[in-house]
Known about the structure:
Layout: H1 3-9, H2 13-20, H3 27-34, E1 42-43, E2 46-47, E3 54-55, E4 78-79, E5 85-90, H4 104-123, E6 127-136, E7 145-155, E8 160-167, E9 173-183, H5 186-194, H6 205-208
Antiparallel strand pairs: 1-2, 3-4, 4-5, 5-7, 6-9, 7-8, 8-9
Amino acid sequence: MPYRERFDKALPVRRISKAVSKAVDLRATIEHNNKHFDDTGRFNGKTFMTAQRQILPWTRSCFVCGEANPHGLRLRSCVEPDGRVTLEHQTRTEDLGYSSIVHGGIAATLLDEVMTWAAIIDMHQPCVAAEMSFRLKLPITVGTRLRVSGWVSRNRRRILLTEGVIHDEEDRVMVSATGKYVPMAVDSARRCEEDFVESADVLSPAVLFGKASGTNTKG
């Protein structure tokens, strides 16, 4: 069975579906973006992604996704059809803590990224972590391809409860997490939005943040 299919079957679908029902409706945006795709998942003549998955925007400065951060991971997150936010990362020697084990802070950072995005999509505005808890179940070694997934499990108006998990190529749960996320203060949110990069290939930050038109410029 393909890795992605095995991974998807391992997720708590019922809980995710309940959370998705409360999330912001991205259907119109997805349908708009999907017109660029054919049935093979090709975009502008190049293999890009399937029509069901959408790439989320990135920033200039973020350690995980920032395109201008020389020390960052420069990863890209996606929103899946069921509302989960996912990203993939192959661990490097730069990620080490002990001589043979990836630093737990790297795993925590990856989980924070997807849970933050899940909160943003649900709230339609920038969010930050107020509390996070992790269970490090198995050691992660260099060269392991990780698939990280996060979702909102409950919306308490001003506090979003999230969950996340990291699987390896064999579908083993390496790390799991829960979190509490809150909306950013207005001034901080404005600065955050200005750091996003506009691209025709991804979901628009303006749509994700509930704005009729974006103020970002392409970097």
